[in-house]
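Residues determine shape. Take a concrete instance:
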Amino acid sequence: MPVLQTHADPLWGIWKIEETWEEMLRQLDRQTDYISYINNCKSDNRKKEWLAVRLLLKTLTGKEMKIAYHSNGTPYLIDSEYNISISHTKGYAAVCLNRGKPAGIDIEHRSERIHKIKSRFLNEQEWEILGANPSTDTLLICWCVKEATFKLTGRQTADWQKDFHILTLEHSSCNNGIATVKETLTPRSATCRISYHIYPEFIVAYSL
């Protein structure tokens, strides 16, 4: 069943994966377009994630669209005005669609394991903003907003410490807010606004 948060610009949503992949496939009209991938995919979880994205896309737009991939692995929609970004985490798939500009979304399961890698993606200036002992949710927000920003660049690789710089974290409430992130990965060195939301099982961040 879908769990949807719908915005006109950008349009995004989250699908809670509760069905089998066979049940999900039956909900799609263009099954012959998908069966080759399904037959070649050995992981049932990967099949469900892949099909959940297509079901969510259909739910958000009202029609099935074909997703293709650039050589660097980033997805795009064929014959559509939307740019697309895709993310998965345990039991959930997320999609963000944006007209006229890139889209970026990331969804992460809430887990204490983020503490083990915090030194890999936070830089000195960000530690000054966050303080010495940021919470698990704060660390996950930082990871998500950087991941969403990375997807906006369309690049294949990046250094999370050097290429993305969280300038502000503005909490609108205890469960959501907006981050300002500057990327120095591309010649544009764009400053991006990334919205984030905290749910009981996951955190999601998407580009505005």
